[in-house]
Amino acid sequence: MKCPGQDTQFWNASAIFEAPCPQCGRTVEFFKDDTTRKCGGCGHRFVNPRMDFGCAAYCQFAAQCLGDLPPELVAQKEDLFKDRVAIAVKRHLKTDFKRIGRAARRARHAELMVGDEKGRLAPVIIAAYVWDLDPAGTTGERPEARALLEGLQAPPPLVAKVCAILDGGGSPESDAARDHALVADAAAIAELEEHGRQTESDSPGAPTIAAALRSEAGKAYARKLFPN
Q: What's the pTM value of the predicted model, to 2 decimals?
């Protein structure tokens, strides 16, 4: 079966259109199923501005359907996948609403700390969601987190990134170690919020909180989040 969106018998006059090159402004002709086109003027290759990558962001057959996926789509696949992980974690935890809420707060804090840096956003947020699925002290395979991601048919490179973050990444200078510290800080802040609500106590203040955190992003975020 061929995807209807890529089958030419379903196309109309809008299937062929022109778009300006974002580098030089020259007009470039696109077919609706082109993932990218190269500008004949400056040679810049850019993504089809009208292409809906929604299904390709989660479909395991996207590469066969659309051809070689551009880097922009690979990033989008991961970014959309994090939303599926959030839903899967809620289902996995069932009625454990305390852990569900904690996972959501961890992910929210991690997202605000990491910003929109490409290549880091999705793995960091996913790691925050699955942070405590495995028993405390678990290292290596992370069986529950890995099983949840593989059950969603996560791309193997993304699974590897997330598991590396969960394990701390080995070398302190590695990207995974840096992101592990960031997610650990997001977890600490989420737990501090939960403790504050339970005891109705005031937060200890940004300097005290920041001193206990591990990442520079976490320390800067704590100073903004909590009063001095």
A: 0.66
